[in-house]
Amino acid sequence: MTTSGTASSVLAEPIELPCGLVLPNRILKAAMGEGLADPWTAEVTPALIRLYERWAAGGSGTLITGVLCVERRAMDSVFVTVDDASDLDGLRRWAGAVHRREVRLLGQLQHPGRQVPRYMARHPVAPSALPPLGGSRLFSSSRALTSEEIEGLIRRFADAAVLVEQAGFDGIELHAAHGYLIGQFLSPETNRRTDEWGGDLARRSRFLLEIIRAVRARVDPRFAVAVKINASDFRPGGFDLDDSAHVVGRLGAEGVDLIEISGGTFESDSGCLSIRPGEPGTTKEAYFAGMAPRLRAMTEVPLALTGGLRSKHVMERLLEEGTVDLIGLGRPLIQQPDLSSHLLGGTAQGIDLLPRPAHGVSELFWWIGQFRRLAAGEDLDPAYTLRRSQLDATRSMARQVVANLRSSARDVVGR
């Protein structure tokens, strides 16, 4: 990290979203899969709350949660599920912890579709029947959703948004990027349907638009609705920049308050949700900045850019030129949770990230281990190995299962 004297910055300016929600500054913590949900109930844990307390104290004006899955059976353990009223207590504690710092909190609603490992969901669904992701034995083949199931999932997204609002969150973000279910509907590579939910882009985007309409019909107008969308999937025959521009152009009329631009999927040549410099249309830093002007021209909705942002001067230039309105940070806030405070205060000009431990799904447990360290008040450990992270995850889940079995046994004895 490099430093300099204190200076005012466009990063520190507040911004008001169309719904009226004011974000304190232009830095948001982008969604990352923390993997700290209770492995038995998929509910919010004290560790997850402590992690967000640390980020809330770190200077970012807005925090977007990691995965809030809208269907419990779609993704077992690891990630929080927002499925019914029993999830409200943990969500309320989570929101309260963040709001004590006067930081905004958006819950990212997601359904993985086919993009979930076999050990988490053995029978995934998708727009169409598809082979295992990337041909890997780690994944299962998916079956095509019926029209009735699609309508049911639209209601589930709306139900989840209502629960998140009741819990006191400031808004939700619909995850339509990175190859998850909404993104699967958008892409002609994974949506091979010939009915009203597939075919041309208008029908492929219907699932996303109907979810937005269902959410907007049930939440307060002042409750923020954001969408995370790929600038491109970087897949031959997949969702590309032309598609993205068309969809982005329609979101404002649907009452969307914020659009976060990202890119890539698990199947992208660059690997697991990561883009390496040299991918067509990307840049060395701020990977999708070269694509952002095309999307900016399509909408007046505030835009956030996430991916590869490391230098303060690049962040400020993107804001000052009006290319985007907010800067999304992910891995930099794992390596240095209070980086935003230093950027805003003028005591940092950026961050030099440590190399990734690997590319692909094997990273998951490594990141979860680092999130656990942050939640415990420790710092990222660059010496933490992939093998050790897998062992730690296995032990943690086993301890939690045993604890829940003991609790269940006590309940039975007490009856």
Keywords:
disordered C terminus; 415 residues; 13 strands; two-stranded antiparallel ribbon; eight-stranded parallel beta barrel; disordered N terminus; 13% strand; globular; alpha/beta
Task: Tell me the total number of β-strands.
Answer: 13
Residue share in helix? 25-40%
Strand content: 5-15%
The helix/strand class is: alpha/beta
Largest sheet: 8 strands, parallel, barrel
What's the helix-strand series? EEEHEEHEEEHEHHHEHEHEHEHHHH
Weakly predicted, low-confidence segments? 1-6, 270-278, 407-415
Mean pLDDT: 89
Distance between the termini: 58 Å
User: Over all CA atoms, what is the radius of gyration?
Assistant: 20 Å
* Tertiary shape: globular
Q: Number of helical segments?
A: 13
Strand order of the largest sheet: 3-4-6-9-10-11-12-13
